[in-house]
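Deliverable D4.2, example record:
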Amino acid sequence: MRIFLFVSILILNFVHFSSAEIKVTIREKIIKGVSATEVMLDDKVVIRLRKEFGGYSPYERAKIVSQHLAKLIKEGITFEDFKIEKVNGSTVITAKGEEVVATDLEAPLNNTTPQELARLWLMNIKIALENVSVVKSIEQENNLGEVKHYLDLAKEYLKKGEDTYVISTYRRVIKDYPRAVIVYQELGLFFRSKNLPGFAVDVYLACLENNSNASNIRRELALTYEIMDSVTTTFGKYKGKALNEWVKLLGTQYDTEAKRHIELLTK
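Output generated by the structure prediction step:
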């Protein structure tokens, strides 16, 4: 069940706070006749506030949270700096020892517990920061346009069935831009579509050497190991490798999926 269900939405206002690496935005809406304010990182909703607290309206609370997040991001905060803690009996998301937002008042409106809502908001933040990190790593090398050009070129070769050119195009981009995670992902999926999971594994491992926090690639690696385990005659060799990767994905945006695979692999 989706935690947030929109029936009628009216956009009322936008406020932007710039930071060095990501745009932090708040957006006020009317949802089911109730005023709510969303906090967004790079246009992705990460927190939604609907309750007054301490004399502050949801809009005012969101503005404070947004300014705080913008400050932290400018200082170079990473997802690992965020924590869920109990502060004066309330469940609070903190970062570097500072309080960011409490979840107790909002949890009942979302049919969940304060702890689970905090986990959801943290997962939203992680996904937003990961996406920005990937794009930023490309933009820092001034190659966003060129990477897109080669991705489009590889797709054209793929349509024509020119597999050799597909591979050489992806490898050329990887050589020049080793932090362009999306290129590794596309090449790995290409090899898997050709029933060459071993080559896909090599691509994913090379990506993780340069981008150790690319959880989407680690997920693809785990899935590929499972594919290899299902077709190999070496019993358990790749099952263990898959299990190891899923364990590393616990606490990431793939936490639920990882737990499910771990359970299946350890039966």
